[in-house]
Every structure is written in structure tokens, then in C-alpha cells.
Amino acid sequence: MNLLNERELRFQLYEVLNTQALLSRPRYAEHDRAVFDATLQTARQIAMDHFAPCNHKGDENEPRFDGERVHLIPETQQAWNAFADAGFLAAHHDYADGGLQLPEVLLRSCMAYFNAANISTVAYSFLSIGAANLIKSFASDELKARFLPAMLSGRFSGTMALTEPGQGSALGDLRTSARPAGDGTYRVFGQKMFISGGDHELTENIVHMVLARIEGAPAGTRGISLFLVPKRLVQADGSCGERNDVALAGLLHKMGNRNTTSTVLSFGERDGALGYLVGEPGQGLACMFQMMNEARIGIGLGAASLGYQSFVHALDYARERPQGRLPGSKAPSSPQVRIVEHADVRHMLLQQKAHAEGSLALCLYASSLVEDAHTGDNQQQRRDAAELLDLLTPVVKSYPSRYGVLASDLGIQILGGAGYTREYPLEQLYRDNRLNPIHEGTEGIQAIDLLGRKLGPRGGDGYRLLREAIRQCLGHAAADCAPLAQQLERALEQLERVTERLQAQVAEDATRGLANATRYLDLFGRVAVGWIWLRQALVASAALEKGADGDEASFYQGKVHAARYFMAWELAPVEGLARLLMAGDSLALDMQDAWY
To answer: N or C terminus: which one in the chain shows less Cβ crowding within 10 Å?
Structure first.
């Protein structure tokens, strides 16, 4: 079984991103390339041994709540233990905190293996990593000492509790409240829903990161604070006591990611759930954005991984399945050809490759920006990386989520009748992947974030840095890659014109200016991933010029050819999108409710 192409990960990490250069930074001085490779291999092996074998079983046997406790298939516990015992929950933390002190981009490459193997089971670990990062960044030293060691070792897991039955993306209207208890703690009251990993028996405790409004706080986002609310009370020595006033009201049943508990949680059915303030009062949403943005990049990576899995399965099937004959060979006595030889199937496979590999490369690039923002060689490099990451986060979340789903959809089409049967993995991959355009903010939310906030009426440093990076890449293109650069340059110029026009529209009338933001997000994503593909093509073309041969030559030729496909076909809609956006088309905005 292939989860991801190992050659693909080595290409991204060491040839495109030059991850080995991180070894010159003081934080990674004790590591070497062998440590990085061994870590990747460990992740791959655990994913193959403990996550992949139970992926289908977890899908068929959803978590069950008997009124007292949640039951999961036993393999989920084994997978959690293997992940935690290998140190992946603490992998990017310092040695002093029990971590492995690994680069962020390496950890996320490992997570790609787990996502590809069993995304619904690794979700428990994914959320716990984010919750621990949030505590490390904003909690008091006392809370860190009490909760972090248990979370990094795997004794405790974590969640993020934002959504309420009456409020989804409009967090400023949330109603969960927190009442000061007089001893520095709070009593939390309210209900949260769609809380992934909100209840289970995998760990001794679950640490909920909860957004709530302190009684008397102002309405809107400025009145929101962040609280750490454990499932079980934790003593000063780290031991667990009685259950906190946090009750599982029920499990939700989703079309995909079925082995991840999706919960409705009630806080404060009795005297109030004990909660600890994290960060300053009224700064809860600002703090939580750290975990939300991490999750957005993680969701993009998950979508890319599932899209890649869909590509792997479809390619294997197409290479083995004989069906029909080519149009030029009608003789009934002639042998059937494998479906990979049919032009339509080749087009779909090439489209899958372009989306899956482009999305994976985009997510790993974003992870490298996370790394540079924390450990860059100087303050300017760290500041620029943070600005660029801030701009690209909605794109990293949305592009793989949209086109990873398309890669899964194409996989079903390539398999034909077998594609939608449960005897093959494509139908589950599609269902699991279809959640990603909704998780951590829909496409519409990401679009408003990009156009309305990250760019704003005048644009920001991130946008300038992105354009400079793309133009620098264009300047390096020569020989075989020159036509690719020309196509991307035209698309970039259209993006620049559209952005300037929309910024003016937003400044004049935000409602009208943002009406087509989702289409702008798609245009922006196509140009950004076009740049990602040009980066890959430049590296691959240089390797071919140096004389790569055999399988290596085939790998590099595949990269250049996929980049040609992307520029020719996936950038083609940019012109039409740009024309409509420049015109300020208001057909959707002007549609009346009664007319539907």
C-alpha cells in the first residue's frame, strides 16, 4: 500500500524547500538529514501499521454513546498509543519540555502520512497538538505546569470548542458565559456543538479550549475570552479527580470522518464547569486564532493528503484495469487496453496529479513559513514569513479543500462502477474529504478573510511579498520553463488588476465589494498554486539538465509536464473570472429571496 509517494516528499522537503538548510539554525544544530529521514520513516511505518488497517473499520463502526461513555473500535486506542509513544504529540516542542525539537515542516510532513492513512483517527492527535500549542503560548505558568506535560505525553488530549447550536462562524454572537468564582477561576455555562474529539476514553482527560463571554463583558468579539475547561478536574500534582460539570449531550453523525467523535457538549448543567482563564479577558478570539489558523493549515494538508490518496488508488487501478480499445483500433480480436491508455482517463489522472501534488506542495510551503516565522535567521525574515503566512492561510485552507475533493471525485470517475462501491476506498476518501471545505470556516468565510481583512482597501505587506516572490521566480525561468512563466505572469497581472479594482469596491461598499469574494479566492488560489507549480518545474528542469536518468528522469519529467498542464488548463478560467470580477458583477447579490 502506498500512502504518499516517498520520492514526492523528499522532493518537496529537500529540493524545493531546502529543509536541510534548517540544520544551520541553532535550534536544530543537534539534528542531521538522517534524523529527519528516520522521523519520516517512523511516521510512515506507524501510519501503515496502526492507522491504515483500521481506516475502513472505523468508518463502518462509528463511535457509540451508551449514555455513560463513548465506545470506539479498539484499534483507535492502539493508534493513539503508537502516535504518542513515538513522541509525535511533542515532536516540535523543546527538549526541555520533553519534545524532539523538530522543525514544523517536518512534523507536518509526518502528519501527511497519518492523514493519508486514516484522517478520522489522527484527528484526535491533530486537535491535541493545537490545544497544547495554545496553552504553551498564552496560559499561565501554573496552568502550563499542570496540563502541558500530560498533553505532550498523551495522558490528556485536547479540543477547540467554538461553535454553538445557534452560532457557527458568527463567533461574536456566542452565548456561552463565564462567571467569576472569586478564587481566580470561573464557572462556565453553555452548550457547544460539532466539537471533534469532544468525548472518548482514549485518554485520562480531555482539555477543552472554550470561548465564552465573562458576565458583564461587552457584546461582539471584544467581549470574548478563552478558558481551559478540563473534562476531569486536575489536582496540583497533575492527577485527575472527579468529572467536571461537562456533559456529553450526544454524538452527531457525519457523512465522513466517522471515527472522530463529533459531539454536543453541555457546560454547567449543575453548578458550572470549572474553567481557567487563558490570556487576558476579552482577548479570547485573538488567542484562539492561533489554534484556528494552525487548524486551517492542517485541514488543507488533510484535504491534500486525501486527494493524493485518491490519485494513488486511481493510478494503480488505471494501470491494471483492461477496458475497451483505442479509437484507432476497432477490431474485436485486438486485445483490450488498460484504461490508463485512454485519453480521457489520462486527462483525469493528470488533473488529479496537478491538484494533489500542487495542494501538498502549497501546504508544506506554508509549514515552512511557520518555521521561518519562529526560527528565521533574523527579525526581518521572521516578520516577512509571518506576513506571508497570514495572507496565504485562507488560500492554504480553501484551495486543497476544494480541489482535493475534486481529486477524490475524479478518482471515483476513473474507477467507474467500482468507484462508488464500498469494496474500494474511493467512496470513503470522497466522503472524508468532503468535510474539509466546511471545517474551520467555509470557503465564503476564507474569501471574506482574504479580500476583506488580509488585503483590505489598500492591501498589506503579505500581498506585496507574495507578488515579489512570484516575480522573482518568474525571473529565474528559462529554456523549457519560459512558456510556463509567461502564462503565470499573465495570470498574475490579471490578479493584480482585479485586486486593485475589488479593493476600491470594498472601500466604497463592503457588502457589494465582497459579494463575489469566493470567486476571487478561487482566482487567487489558482495563481498561488500556479507559482507553486512553477517552483517545482524549475527544480525538476534543472535536474533534467544535469542528466537525471531512469526513474529519476521520469519523476522530473512528470513534474514539468504537470506544471504545463496546470498553466494551460487550470489557469485558463482566470481570464473569465477576472472579467466578471472587474465588472463588479452583482447578479448573485441582486437575486431576491422570493425569486428562488
So the answer is: C
Rounded (10°) angle between helices 284-320 and 104-138: 160
Alpha-carbon distance values, 162 to 22, 159, 198, 227, 441 (Å): 35, 10, 12, 11, 11
- Cα angle at 278 between 275 and 279, to 5 degrees? 150
| Cα-based distances in Å from 82 to 77, 122, 154, 199, 275 | 9, 11, 10, 20, 31
The answer to whether 220 and 172 are in contact (CB under 8 A) is: yes
Q: What is the pLDDT of residues 178-237, one digit of tens each?
A: 999 999 999 999 999 999 999 999 999 999 999 999 999 999 999 999 999 999 999 988
Q: What is the pLDDT of residue 458?
A: 56
E-strand ranges in 253-357 read 262-267, 273-278
Residues 6 or more apart whose CB falls under 8 angstroms from that of 126 comprise 111, 295, 298, 302
Of the candidates 143, 139, 111, 140, the one whose C-alpha atom is nearest the C-alpha of residue 127 is 111
| Beta strand pairing call for 240-243 and 232-234 | antiparallel
For the chain, list the domains and their CATH numbers: 6-138 (1.10.540.10), 157-282 (2.40.110.20), 283-327+334-441 (1.20.140.10), 457-587 (1.20.140)
Residue pair 236/192 in contact by the 8 Å Cβ criterion: no
Could you tell me which residues come within 8 angstroms of residue 293 by beta carbon, excluding any fewer than 6 positions away?
A: 393
The pTM for the full model equals: 0.97
Cα–Cα distance for residue pair 317/315, rounded to 1 Å: 5
Quote the longest CA-to-CA distance of the chain.
Answer: 87
For 193, other C-beta atoms within 10 Å of its C-beta total 21
What is the distance of C-alpha 52 from the center of its chain? 19
CB-based contact 574:523 (threshold 8 Å) = yes
306-312-318 Cα angle (round to 5):
135
Closest CA to 432 of 118, 105, 51, 104: 118
pLDDT tens, 384-416? 999 999 999 999 999 999 999 999 999 999 999
Residue 173 has pLDDT above 90, yes or no: no
Taking only the tens place, the pLDDT of each residue in 574-595 is 999 999 999 998 999 999 999 9
C-alpha to C-alpha distance for 210 and 246, rounded to whole angstroms:
12
Give the distance from CA 334 to its chain's centroid: 47
Give the E-state strand segments of 133-204 in sequence order: 156-161, 177-180, 186-196
- Is 265 in a helix, a strand, or coil? strand
